Known about the structure:
The chain has a single domain, classed as Phosphate transport system protein phou homolog 2, domain 2 (Methane Monooxygenase Hydroxylase, Chain G, domain 1). It has eight helices and no strands. It is mainly alpha-helical.
Amino acid sequence: MPERPVHELIKELSQVLVQLSDKVIGNLFNALQAVKHQDAQGARQIRIVDGEIDVAEINLEERCLAFLALQQPVARDLRTIVTIIKINDHLERIGDLAVHLIERMPEITPEMLELFEFDNMGMQAGEMVKHSIDAFVAADRFLAGRITVMDEVIDAIHRKVFSRVASLMKNPDSDSNELIAALSISRYIERIADHASSIANEVIFLVTGVIVRHTEWSCEKLINFSST
């Protein structure tokens, strides 16, 4: 049997990554709903799915490493495999953060969740993850660049939550444990957005060959870069 072309193998690995992302994003949205509705049964299912995500992440990493060893890719093919490995890792961490969200569920009331509008914040972070994967599929560096702007919005929301929690903590009648749980939830969502932004940076690296981590990057810079 003849060996399969390299591009077919890469396409298959990319499809496996997208399938994993669908499971991660779905589990994240389910976690947000479970916390919102205090759904203990839903929380148990999220833990089960997270176990499946962990297994899938390891399997995909092993397949990518085997590909590197056997095919010894160069140039764009090498960048693609490296990008898949890095995105795979970010998706697994997002999956872990979804579990962290439901772990805080017993410590916080629906009223507190509504006060800080975590449902909206979480949905925005989830959409960022989805858009970052869309950017990978389409090799769209401009969509990837816009994720950074969305991340700044989530960062601003998190700072407001921190300030509000600090203010409420000054009230002697406040429930400090619940406020700490609220701050933790905000931090988890902010970290999910950070991972989405990191995925977007990997997409920019894939498409342009430019490493944009720890640098100021924008859609305008992407436009200027593409015209040079």
